[in-house]
Every structure is written in structure tokens, then in C-alpha cells.
């Protein structure tokens, strides 16, 4: 990836004078995590990093920077969030300069940190040939992708940023995985309704109600006026009951139905490691069946729940 | 320290389980890929390798605590009159908190200064504190994000703990710290270990020496405060923050709370739940005005509280114990160490500029 990072840096340097800022990634506070970098100064361009540690979906910052000329670096999944933001008119295409990349997969820091034991002296991370390779204090270590990558990477529909102004590097395929881990959705589908409820109650017991899942979602637009914390109306109470917390997850899932691009930020942000993207994946399947629609693919389409038709093609209301 | 005892690795779990007969034992156990403090039972998978993902603070300051229960009923004889019955709900469970790291235990001293402050005693907190024995576990493998040594602590410290477990060859040396810890250990069927105290001390010393160095982060109260009106600084620092609050909820020293009445028909509870200054509702006034209405002001509050306002009020003790959970679990990898260092540099540079 050495060449694409150089290309990325020079493309950004070239564009920077016309922009208020460019958002990319830089080395993070721990050797396994990179962190968003807001570049206003050419000197900062040298701090840019690009490898499978670049997890954060930077698209979520854009609605808050509306009115500014912003450059942004995106992977395949992040680009789909951009498409959704464009469709919903939360950002203006002419104000955004998109630097698109081909992604080989994004590592899931928590399990990798545990699998590697110590990350002290971790120098590089790469994904190729079906494995994740790490150099830790000069020593090479590998992990199977099923253990190293974020779950979203196993259902990736395109690792290239499709919508962009500058595509950097070579185009390619999503990570090729020989052994795909069983998804939580598959596990749930094999359960009875009662077992599913128990599964979620058990998961939600661990939820600390930080709402990082919501704050990290690039499509959560209410943010400071979220139903989760509203007392008037009083949708969820503040007690620690798992069902109250599940109620919030249901609200989040419904608010992103037909909009969620499965960027995985909600799940990645959750400090308790709860498999909450599953709820959105289940809804996305219904949306696909009912409306033949996949979020984040075409900037000129409108999300199905944004439109009103007297009769939907696949919902035969009058035939009931 | 007074008494020293020894327990072999294979005896640890059976001994902890024997304690569950008379009290609740909270310990770091694996749950869904995470390591969290939870009540121990025979099916628990104890994980003593590193720092638990969430702090142990819920042992003393639960995520949601019922302060009292209430019930409305129609007044006897006078139907238009509503009567209110209130029931006290004080915590009554004896607890043995095992495997708290020295930073976690030190976090409790941050609470003590606030919730157990002379005449201003919070009975809920104080009752829990009295009923809980804190058994700290000295660290042997600090993470990259650990910096207890830069905020007045250390991987083998005993502040806030009643006893300290130090891993040694084959097991643990247990030393009492407080009288409460001493009394507890005296009753336990554990081997005397006076002669292994030195071995334990050496283990702690070696870990302490191997910790990455760095400037102390204390003593910056004035610098942080001097930046109070520096919009540009806080705006820059907070630009990538999502204002989610995960950092505060995982922090062993954040103690802000919210109180609400949750009513269901004629019955209700008044609950105290965790709050955090990174969230919009914190200090949201009834009028709709919020003096901290942006993420820059919220970040300023979090850093200011930990490194300036709290130490100003409490003899220079910081409200950060260096566990680094806020760094590891921040979705955008914000680094509290870097923010404090930047604040100091900025304030000092400004001062020099003013003196020029
Ligand atoms: S989902 Fe696809 S595009 Fe996104 S990080 Fe994973 S591999 Fe890359
Ligand atoms: S709900 Fe989760 S996966 Fe869907 S867009 Fe939001 S953060 Fe991404
Ligand atoms: S991020 Fe996780 S712990 Fe926080 S509110 Fe969401 S589900 Fe709960
Ligand atoms: S966890 Fe990170 S993003 Fe969330 S409020 Fe804290 S600093 Fe901001
Ligand atoms: S501020 Fe961060 S490092 Fe300090 S005690 Fe809280 S979570 Fe730990």
C-alpha cells in the first residue's frame, strides 16, 4: 500500500489550497488504533496513515461541517455512507471533495488486541492472501481474517469507494475469506422467538447506555434531541432494565431502516462489544425484499421510506 | 502492611467461590468477548490477564440505583385525596470486590472525597463502601495505554484498597492494607506468607520500573484553567469527538449522576443513574438553554474537571487514575494524555507570549 499512501498525500496536498480542511486518519494513541485527522495545514499531510487500522468512518463528520469546503478520505463502506448523506440532502456534493480508496479490510481492534497479547512495538498491519499480518517488535505474526477483521468486512458489497472525485491506487475486491464466521443474524434465525428475546436481554444486560452506538452512526441526525433521553415524550425510562435498552436499539434500528448502509460504526463504537448491527441487518433484508432497495448505492435514488406511493409494488395492501 | 498470606493459583477460584456463601463476590469475568466485573459463580470464567474493559466503579456507584420506591393510593374515606407511601431502599449486600486493578481502587478515593465528605455523606455510597472489601490485584502487564505512574499512582499501589494481591511464582501473596482487610484475612484459612513479602515487593518494583515514562500530568490545574476561554484550543481538541460519553461511563473516577422518577401506574421509583458531561443533557436547563452547548465546551468540562477543578478542591489529587479505558474504547481514539500535555504547552506558550 506504500504507493497509494504517497498518491493520497500528493492528491490531498494539491487539493488543500481550495479546501477548508481535509479529514483523513493518523496514527492513534495505541499501536492498533488510528484516529481521525483534521488537516488544515500542509505539514499535517505527512501525518496521514492508510492501512487496515483506519477504521473510523469519517463521513459522519460532514453534516456538522456543512457550509465548509471539506475533503474526505473514504473506504468502500464509508463511501456508501456518503451516498446516503447525499440522498438525504444532509451534505452538498459541490462542497465535498472525495478521495476514494480500495480497502483490503478493516481490523477489529478489540479481538486483535486480545489475540496478539501485547501490542507494544506493533509496527505494521496488512491484510493479504486471506490473513492479517502484524509486525510486533520486529516479529511477524499472523491471524486468520475471521479473527482479525470487523464483521462488516465479511459482507462487504464493494471495497472500492464507488463515488469519488479522486480514486487513489488500484481497484480491487473485498477481502477474500476462506472461512467466514457465522453471523449473529444466522445464529438468531436458528432460534425461536423466545430464545431471541432471551439473547437480546442477555446482551442488553451489558449495555451501559452510553449511546456511543448512536453518536457514532453517520446517519443519526437527531443527536442532541434523541428519543433515548427525551423525558417528554417519555419513550424509554432510565432504569437499568434490559428491555428499556432494547427499546432504544429498536428505535435506532427503525430510524435507520432503509438508510443504514451497514458501515458497522454502531457496533465498532460500542464499548461493550454488543452485536447491535444485527438488528439493522435484519431490517435491511426486509427493506430489500419489500422495496428491492439497498442503501448507499445510487446518489440519485431516494430511500424507500422517504417516498410515498399509494401502492408499493411488493406490499399488496388492497389484496388483504 | 500488616498480614501477608499466600494462595496457590489452583486454590484461588475455589476460595473465591467459598466466599460467595456469605457475600457477593465481584470479579473480572469473560462475557461475550469482554472482561467485566460481574458476580462470580461456578460457571464464571475468571480473567486476570489485564485490565477489565469496564471499570469496577459500578460496585460502589451502580449504573442505576433505586433511592426509594413510592406508591400512590386513594385516600381512605376521602376519594379525591391521594396518599403517597415512600419506602427506603438502602443497599444491604456484603461484597468482596476481587481483581480491581490499583487504578480502579484508587478511583474509589476520588469518590470518597466527594460522597463521604464530613457532614456531606451520601448514605447510599457510604453504605456500599462500608459493606465492600476491595481486593486489588497488582498489575504485571500494563497496556500501552496505562499511565497510572503519570497521575500519582502505580501498578502496585494500594490507595483505596483493603488488601493487595501480588502475583508471584505459583500463586499470589496477599497483603492487608486497612484494618478491615486485616480482620478479613485473619479469618481466612490461608497460608502465612511473611517470608514471601519480599518476592512480592520485587515483582511490583520490576513492573513499576518497566512502565513507560512521561511527564507527570498533575500540577496542571492553573494551566488548564487559564485556557478556559480559549475557544480555538477546545474547538480544535474536540473536533473529532463524537460527544458520545463512552469515555465517562468507562472511567473509574467519573461520578456525575442524574435523578429521575420512573412511574408505572400507581407505583414508582426514584433512580439515580450515571450521567456524563459529554452528553447534551448534562446541564441542560429547564428553559432549554445549555451553558455547555457544544462538544468543545463539554470536552473542556471533562478535562477541566479531572485535571483542574477537582484537584483544586482536593489537595492536588487528580480525578484521573491513568487506566486508559477512555483511550482504548473511544470510538475515535481520543487520547486524554495528549490533550492535557497540549493544554499545558499551550498555556505556557501563551504565558511566555504575554511576558514578551
Ligand atoms: S466493509 Fe469492505 S470497504 Fe468497508 S472496511 Fe470492510 S472491506 Fe473495507
Ligand atoms: S446503524 Fe450502524 S451500520 Fe447502520 S449506518 Fe448507522 S452506524 Fe452504520
Ligand atoms: S454503544 Fe453499546 S453500551 Fe453504549 S448504548 Fe449503545 S449498545 Fe449500549
Ligand atoms: S469516547 Fe471519545 S468520542 Fe466519545 S465522548 Fe469520549 S472522547 Fe468523545
Ligand atoms: S480519564 Fe481516562 S485514563 Fe483517566 S481514569 Fe478516566 S478512563 Fe482512566
From TrEMBL, chain A:
Keywords: Iron, Iron-sulfur, Metal-binding. Residues 251-280 form the 4Fe-4S ferredoxin-type domain. It comes from the Bacteria. InterPro entries: 4Fe4S_Fe-S-bd, 4Fe4S_Fe_S_CS, FrhB_FdhB_C, Helical_ferredxn. PROSITE patterns: 4FE4S_FER_1, 4FE4S_FER_2. Pfam families: Fer4_8, FrhB_FdhB_C. This is 4Fe-4S dicluster domain-containing protein.
Automatic annotation (TrEMBL), chain B:
The keyword Disulfide bond does not apply. Pfam families: Fer4_22. Keywords: Iron, Iron-sulfur, Metal-binding. Residues 231-262, 309-342 form the 4Fe-4S ferredoxin-type domain. This is 4Fe-4S dicluster domain-containing protein.
Amino acid at each position: 500500500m506504500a504507493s497509494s499512501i504517497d498518491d493520497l498525500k500528493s492528491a490531498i496536498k494539491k487539493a488543500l489550497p481550495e479546501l477548508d480542511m481535509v479529514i483523513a486518519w493518523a496514527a492513534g494513541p495505541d499501536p492498533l488504533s488510528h484516529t481521525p485527522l483534521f488537516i488544515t495545514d500542509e505539514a499535517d499531510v505527512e501525518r496521514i496513515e492508510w492501512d487496515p487500522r483506519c477504521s473510523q468512518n469519517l463521513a459522519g463528520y460532514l453534516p456538522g461541517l456543512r457550509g465548509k469546503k471539506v475533503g474526505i478520505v473514504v473506504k468502500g463502506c464509508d463511501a456508501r455512507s456518503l451516498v446516503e448523506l447525499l440522498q438525504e440532502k444532509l451534505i452538498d456534493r459541490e462542497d465535498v471533495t472525495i478521495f476514494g480508496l480500495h480497502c483490503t479490510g478493516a481490523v477489529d481492534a478489540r479481538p486483535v488486541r486480545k489475540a496478539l497479547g501485547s501490542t507494544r512495538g506493533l509496527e505494521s498491519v496488512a491484510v493479504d492472501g486471506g490473513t492479517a499480518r502484524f509486525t510486533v517488535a520486529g516479529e511477524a505474526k499472523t491471524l486468520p481474517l475471521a479473527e482479525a477483521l470487523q464483521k462488516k468486512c465479511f459482507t462487504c458489497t464493494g471495497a472500492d469507494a464507488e463515488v469519488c472525485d479522486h480514486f487513489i491506487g488500484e481497484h480491487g475486491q473485498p477481502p477474500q475469506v476462506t472461512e467466514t464466521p457465522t453471523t449473529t443474524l444466522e445464529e438468531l434465525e436458528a432460534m425461536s422467538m423466545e430464545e431471541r428475546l432471551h439473547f437480546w436481554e442477555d446482551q442488553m444486560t451489558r449495555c451501559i447506555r452510553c449511546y456511543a452506538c448512536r453518536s457514532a452512526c453517520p446517519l443519526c441526525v437527531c443527536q442532541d434531541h434523541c428519543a433515548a433521553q427525551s423525558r417528554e415524550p417519555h419513550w424509554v425510562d432510565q432504569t437499568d432494565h434490559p428491555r428499556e435498552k432494547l427499546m432504544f436499539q429498536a428505535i435506532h434500528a427503525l430510524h435507520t431502516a432503509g438508510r443504514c448502509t451497514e458501515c458497522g460504526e454502531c457496533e465498532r463504537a460500542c464499548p461493550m462489544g454488543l452485536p447491535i448491527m444485527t438488528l439493522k441487518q435484519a431490517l435491511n433484508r426486509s427493506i430489500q425484499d419489500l422495496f428491492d432497495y439497498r442503501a448507499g448505492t445510487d446518489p440519485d435514488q431516494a430511500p424507500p421510506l422517504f417516498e410515498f406511493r399509494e401502492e408499493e409494488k411488493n406490499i399488496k395492501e388492497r389484496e388483504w | 502492611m500488616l498480614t501477608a498470606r499466600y494462595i496457590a493459583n489452583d486454590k484461588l477460584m475455589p476460595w473465591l467461590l467459598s466466599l460467595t456463601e456469605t457475600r457477593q463476590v465481584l470479579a473480572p469475568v469473560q462475557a461475550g468477548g469482554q472482561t467485566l466485573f460481574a458476580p462470580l459463580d461456578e460457571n464464571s470464567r475468571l480473567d486476570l490477564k489485564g485490565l477489565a474493559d469496564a471499570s469496577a466503579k459500578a460496585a460502589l456507584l451502580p449504573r442505576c440505583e433505586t433511592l426509594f420506591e413510592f406508591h400512590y393510593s386513594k385516600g381512605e374515606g376521602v376519594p379525591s385525596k391521594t396518599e403517597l407511601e415512600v419506602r427506603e431502599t438502602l443497599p444491604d449486600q456484603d461484597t468482596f470486590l476481587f481483581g480491581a486493578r490499583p487504578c480502579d481502587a484508587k478511583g474509589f478515593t476520588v469518590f470518597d472525597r466527594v460522597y463521604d465528605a464530613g457532614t456531606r455523606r451520601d448514605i447510599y455510597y457510604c453504605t456500599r463502601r462500608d459493606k465492600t472489601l476491595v481486593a486489588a490485584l497488582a498489575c504485571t502487564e500494563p497496556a500501552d495505554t496505562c499511565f497510572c505512574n503519570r497521575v500519582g499512582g502505580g501498578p502496585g499501589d494500594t490507595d483505596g484498597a483493603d488488601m493487595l494481591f501480588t502475583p508471584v511464582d505459583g500463586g499470589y501473596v496477599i497483603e492487608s492494607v486497612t484494618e478491615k482487610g486485616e480482620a478479613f484475612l485473619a479469618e481466612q484459612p490461608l497460608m502465612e506468607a511473611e517470608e514471601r513479602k519480599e518476592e512480592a515487593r520485587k515483582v511490583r518494583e520490576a513492573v513499576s520500573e518497566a512502565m513507560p515514562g512521561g511527564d507527570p500530568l498533575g500540577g496542571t490545574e492553573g494551566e488548564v484553567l487559564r485556557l478556559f476561554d480559549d475557544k480555538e484550543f477546545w474547538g480544535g481538541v474536540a473536533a473529532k469527538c463524537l460527544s458520545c460519553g463512552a469515555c465517562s461511563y468507562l472511567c473509574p473516577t467519573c461520578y456525575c449522576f442524574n435523578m429521575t422518577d420512573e412511574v408505572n401506574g400507581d407505583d414508582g421509583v426514584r433512580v439515580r443513574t450515571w450521567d456524563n458531561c459529554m452528553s447534551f443533557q448534562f446541564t441542560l436547563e429547564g428553559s432549554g438553554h445549555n451553558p455547555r452547548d457544544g462538544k468543545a465546551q463539554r470536552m473542556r468540562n471533562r478535562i477541566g474537571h479531572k485535571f483542574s477543578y477537582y484537584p483544586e478542591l482536593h489537595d492536588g489529587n487528580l480525578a484521573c487514575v491513568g487506566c486508559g479505558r477512555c483511550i482504548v474504547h473511544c470510538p475515535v481514539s481520543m487520547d486524554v494524555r495528549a490533550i492535557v500535555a497540549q493544554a499545558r504547552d499551550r498555556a505556557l506558550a501563551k504565558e511566555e507570549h504575554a511576558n514578551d
